[in-house]
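A reminder from the course coordinator: this example appears on the midterm review sheet, so study it carefully.

Given structure:
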């Protein structure tokens, strides 16, 4: 069983690392941000409301809505051997609710400085078609075009500088306290997110493998 939470500010590389972990260990990558964006694109009521009132403005979506979505997602069959939560929990209330839903084996906090985060977020682009993410550390071969599927790249509305600043305030106020929360629980590991993607991944794998051998 490999039940992982990736903690850390927006733009620290949680999504990229979650994808790599998912491929290597064969467990699903669950991104609440992606769930919200997909719901908005599909035009569902909850998706549109979440975008207009919350994430489009850099604010967190209320706990009740988010917890329910995650609970439903974790009940799916593909989570039976574990999962990677990327962007959840983001508040102490969500962490408390999660405890009642699932046991967590690893909480990995990927840390980066504010300047790095702002640079990364405002330069981030995503493929409209397949969702692949590009950025300063991983630019596409041809500007504006996805290497994988040839789709057009776009900038997330909430990656524009004004919204990024609000998201960072939300992170400091509501999500950062989770570091202490999980420190007390004893399953928190910290990784320096300013290193290369490969190096961050190597450190994460070391944590996951070492602990697995001990248990
Ligand atoms: P992300 O892609 O993880 O940066 O998430 C994008 C946006 O979705 C966030 O800025 C929030 O508005 C919303 N969101 C994602 N995960 C959560 C969560 N666990 N709790 C509340 N809001 C969330």
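Designed residues:
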């Amino acid at each position: 069983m490999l039940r992982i939470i990736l903690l850390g500010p927006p733009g620290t590389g949680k999504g990229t690392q979650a994808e790599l972990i998912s491929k290597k260990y064969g467990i699903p990558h669950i991104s609440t941000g992606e769930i919200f964006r997909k719901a908005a694109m599909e035009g569902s009521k909850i998706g549109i409301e979440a975008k207009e009132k919350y994430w489009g403005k850099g604010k967190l979506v209320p706990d009740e809505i988010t917890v329910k979505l995650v609970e439903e997602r974790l009940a799916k069959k593909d989570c039976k051997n574990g999962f990677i939560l990327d962007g959840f929990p983001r508040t102490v209330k969500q962490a408390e609710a999660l405890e009642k839903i699932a046991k967590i084996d690893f909480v990995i906090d990927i840390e980066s400085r504010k300047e790095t985060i702002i640079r990364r977020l405002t330069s981030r682009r995503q493929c409209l078609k397949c969702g692949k993410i590009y950025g300063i550390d991983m630019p596409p071969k041809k500007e504006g075009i996805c290497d994988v599927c040839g789709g057009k790249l776009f900038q997330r509305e909430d990656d524009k500088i004004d919204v990024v600043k609000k998201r960072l305030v939300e992170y400091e106020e509501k999500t950062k306290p989770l570091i202490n929360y999980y420190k007390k629980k004893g399953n928190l590991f910290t990784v320096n997110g300013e290193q290369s993607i490969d190096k961050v991944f190597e450190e994460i794998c070391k944590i996951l493998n070492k602990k697995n051998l001990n248990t």
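The chain has nine helices and eight strands. The longest strand covers residues 2-7.
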